[in-house]
Structures are given as C-alpha cells and as structure tokens.
C-alpha cells in the first residue's frame, strides 16, 4: 500500500500542473490526460526500482512509458518535486541528469550527454528552472536555480542562478529582478 507521502507527492504534481498550465480546466483532466504527468509518475516508480538494483524492470517500465507518452526519462535520472513537463512529446532526460524542485520543461527538450565516458555526463538543473520548447542542454553542466532557457537554445556551458540563456550556442545574461521567466519562454524575441 502506498505511503501517505506518496499521495502528497501526487497531489503536489497535480497542483503544480494546474498552476503552470493555463489550459488546465480540472484536476481530473490533468490526472487522466497529461502525458508529462504520467511520465513523471512512471519515472518515480522506475527510479525506485533502479536505485534498488532492479535495473531490467526499471528500464522496461521506462521504455513502456516512452512508447505511451513520447517522453523518455532514464530511470537513473534524479527528478525533484513538482516537476512539470508541458505537452512533453520528444522530451529526453539522460541517466545522470539531475532536475531540481519546481522545474518546468516544454516539448522537445533534451537533457543529454556529450560523451560516452562513464560517470556524470548529463546536466543538472537547479530549482525553479524553466526550459523552452526544443532546447538542448548537453553535458555535465550546471544551470543555476531560477534560470530560464529559451526555445531551441543549445546550452553546453554552466550558467549561474537567475540567468537567461538564448541562442545557438546559448549566450548567458543575468535575469533582471523584475523579469518574469515564464514570459521569456513565450516571447517571440527569444525564439531562434
């Protein structure tokens, strides 16, 4: 039987989705019809198996979820609380990726590697990072908390907290104190 903490996590995920998606009409709609949420819930189970050394079933669940949702999250990836994937199709999160709390990704985002070496090879996203559609964040880099990555940006270097990253290759600038990072992800000037 699931622990009460598991139910609290499910509720947090539903609330996070409703807060971040203006198209969300009801909690039941989110629970039944949001593939990003289904992928995160499935990942939590696959990750629990992975860390207990039950690797083949963890990978099988991950691949089934990929087939059902179009979202691939390796069971070895570490995902924080209230993580939301909007739309989701084409999202790929690698084995050694680390995602903080309150992170939001749009469709087509890749948290990928640049090397075949063992060890840490995927990015780390701090708390509250927002990543626009199609962005590629590659290698064992760290994106600081509160940063925003624009649509289609290609990020291959670390960025400090409260950064805005746009372009190919991505250029980093400090976010203005009054700047709303959610707006940055939908403003045409930040698209490539």
Account of the protein in words:
With 192 residues, the chain is an alpha/beta fold. The protein contains five helices and 15 strands. The protein has helices at 4-20, 27-33, 35-51, 55-69, 181-184, and strands at residues 72-73, 78-79, 84-85, 92-93, 98-99, 104-105, 110-112, 124-125, 130-131, 136-138, 142-143, 148-149, 154-155, 163-166, 171-174. Strand 14 (163-166) and strand 15 form a beta hairpin. Mean pLDDT is 89; it is low at 183-192.
User: What order do the SSEs take from the amino end to the carboxyl end, as H and E?
Assistant: HHHHEEEEEEEEEEEEEEEH
Question: How is the biggest beta sheet arranged?
Answer: 6 strands, mixed
- Summed over residues and divided by their number, the pLDDT gives a mean of 89
Radius of gyration from CA coordinates: 16 Å
User: Given the helix and strand composition, which structural class is it?
Assistant: alpha/beta
Helix segment tally: 5
Biggest sheet strand order reads 3-6-9-12-14-15
End-to-end CA span: 48 Å
Outline the low-pLDDT stretches.
183-192
Quote the beta fraction. 15-25%
Q: What would the principal axes of the Cα set say about the shape? A: globular
Amount of helix: 25-40%
Number of strands: 15
